[in-house]
Amino acid sequence: MTEPLLSVENLQTHFRTPDGVNRAVDGVSFHVNAGETVAIVGESGCGKSVTSMSILRLIPEPPGKIAGAIKFEGRDLLKLSDKEMRKIRGNSISMIFQEPMTSLNPVLTVGRQIGETLRLHQGMSAADAEKKAIEMLELVGIPEPARRVREYPHQLSGGMRQRVMIAIALACNPKLLIADEPTTALDVTIQAQILDLMRDLKRRVGAAIVLITHDLGVVAEVAERVVVMYAGRKVEEAPVRELFASPRHPYTRGLLGSVPKLGSSLTGHTERLAEIPGLVPSLKNKIQGCVFAGRCSEATDLCRAVAPALEMKGANHMAACHYSVKESVAA
Amino acid sequence: MSSAPVVLEVSDLKKHFPIRGGLLGTPVGHVYAVDGVSFSIRRGETLSLVGESGCGKSTVGKSVLRLFPLTSGQVVLDGKRIDDMPASSLRMLRRKIQVVFQDPFSSLNPRMRVRDVIAEPIINFGLAKDRADLDRRVAHALDTVRLPTDAAGRWPHEFSGGQRQRIGIARALAAEPDIIVCDEAVSALDVSVKAQIVNLMQDLQKELGLAMLFISHDLAIVEHMTHRVAVMYLGKIVEVADKRSLFGAPRHPYTEALLSAVPVPDPTAKRDRIVLQGDVPSPIRPPSGCRFHTRCPYVMDRCRKEEPVLTPDATGHLAACHLHDLPASQNPLNKAGPTAFRAA
Fold first, then answer.
1. Minimal CA separation from B324 to chain A, in Å
2. Nearest to B191 among A214, A261, A272 (CB)
3. A267 interaction partners in chain B (CB closer than 8 Å)
4. Is any Cβ of chain A less than 8 angstroms from the Cβ of B223?
5. What's the pLDDT band for B166 if we cut at 50, 70, 90?
6. A63, A77, A158, A287 - which has most CB atoms within 10 Å?
7. Which of A263, A269, A297, A293 is nearest to A281 (CA)?
């Protein structure tokens, strides 16, 4: 097997706060192969965004503290100097943020912002960078790119701003694109456009994507493999079809049961939504046992005392639960 | 359901916001936020208003709550016209129409204990006979939304988003309303908590026989919650129908595209997605004719000139689209069928 493009090993991102250490990410491992789309799913506070920020070392230290290893093309990003890290950000790893309104600079033209990465990483001249910026705008499907390149973010709609963000992220042909809730702030018809664009660009550009989202619909549409996070831990990982067809962790099952499916009025599935009772536990105290035990209907004394390890429950299917059935792993 | 009394009736509601410019602040144009919207809601019924940002759905909600004066149109609440009612006489009528807002963090006063948040409407509308009755009502409201009684003495910041939304619902219910306007009431909540609140609202509606105007952009939640759906686009309702009829066989191209755009949590689903081109036009200068014609995949010449009106089919499913004047065999909406659920 070839070396994965990115492998995150036992990542721990903790924050020192006045009332204790917040274990936002507590021992998460996963990998991304070249050209693959991996989704990280979970609810607010599960650590999915902190994981993505940790990969690019965008966590301010202190109060944050990142431990573990993040190997990108064989190099541990956590061991690089700030200067070396700057060469990677926006170049071979780039990021799309959720809020296209606040993540663009309002006083610079769109062209300047796309050109910035090109001039910085590829030493292009201002004129070349603008030419390339126009090409990028065209690539992400913005009409009249030659005019738009001189416009400011406020002159663009939300969907177009997100397209500009994608153009910036892709300008230097990154090998890995981290997309943190890229469509959450957008309307459904615009979301459909952006998801279409991301799928299409992935075919053309071939970058691997780490997609951070809470929307299981988006996951089902674009991901190949899914990592489910809960309270700072990875609780399940599987190929997308496998995960939706036979979730092995009670949290994943709860999550899938709690979203109504479009078409429910026709298929007659109008029963109550499955609820996950209770709340996400505070990350400030070290959690004894399984992180989900407090909300799990099947939890036993074993769950409350001993944290279950991630086990292979089937081919490529991993879950951290004492009670989930193991499929006989055939060759 | 159709025999239940009408609680809220809205006819030809318009709300235009002036855009002021120049030194004197004279109006230089208008935002046609809501431009002729009519619907009615019966007791025990949920009507959902769906549409994308800027379609005017929240403005409709605020208009029926009379949070601002209307440009024109009628709003009849429990048989009384409230659109032109002076504020003084409207005050006590406000008890009958309550609201639950989107953001559970900014819609509760952080300096009021939960008890006072819930007691405020009870006191304002003079519902409690004495102090003991007030306490009883507050406890009852908390109990209705499945919060412990000791929550009364705590502050809003001590609660999570889902619990705060329960407090918001308790406050709305404390006034003993006939209808509740839920403006994106579950949109800000996490998936698992959202399910809790959706279930709670459905239970409450059954228990109390409330009417509900449910404003949302989340079509899957709407389909789960609602009885009827009205789809809005650029200040107009383009389609109204029972949910089965609307989700099963949409009769407006915008609804069809909207349904096909929703990502479905099923990786095996194969769907024909209709990706609409471009953005929603500005409500300051809405397009001529049919407002959807700039993005409609089936646009005809007539659509650019002539505005379609809401017309019912044999089952009472209303849609505003010229395609239905074509012979049935040429109507693309007929052959497309329920795009969203082919997989099932």
1. 23
2. A214
3. 341, 344
4. yes
5. very high
6. A77
7. A293
Lowest mean pLDDT among A182-186, B63-67, B81-85: A182-186
Distance CA A263, CA A88 (A): 44
Strands A64-72 and A6-17 turn out to be antiparallel
Q: How far apart are CA B170 and CA B140, in angstroms?
A: 9
Give the gap in angstroms from C-alpha B156 to the nearest C-alpha of chain A: 16
Measure the CA–CA gap between B193 and A277, rounded to whole angstroms: 8
- Minimal CA separation from B298 to chain A, in Å: 17
Give the residue from chain A lying closest to B259, CA to CA: A262
> CA B197: distance to chain centroid?
16
ipTM of the complex: 0.78
**Per residue in A87-139, pLDDT tens?**
888 889 999 887 777 888 999 999 999 998 889 888 888 898 999 899 888 88
CA distance B276 to B255: 11
Spatial separation of the C-alpha atoms in residues B227 and B243, rounded to whole Å? 6
Report how far residue B219's alpha carbon sits from residue B242's, in angstroms, rounded to the nearest whole number: 14
Burial of B244 (0-12, 13-18, 19+ CB in 10 A): middle
Q: Is B315 on the interface with A (CB under 8 A)?
A: no
Contacts of A219 in chain B (CB under 8 A): 265
pTM: 0.84
Mean pLDDT of chain A: 86
Task: From B118, B96, B34, B21, select the one nearest B69 (Cα to Cα).
Answer: B34
Digit-coded pLDDT (tens) for B85-124: 888 888 888 999 999 988 888 889 999 999 999 999 999 9
- Predicted confidence (pLDDT) at residue B340 exceeds the cutoff of 50: no
Average pLDDT over residues A175-187: 86
Distances (CA, A) of A64 to A15, A61, A129, A188, B75: 4, 5, 35, 35, 55
In this predicted structure, the answer to whether residue A260 has a pLDDT above a threshold of 90 is: no
Residue of A nearest to B55 (CA): A187
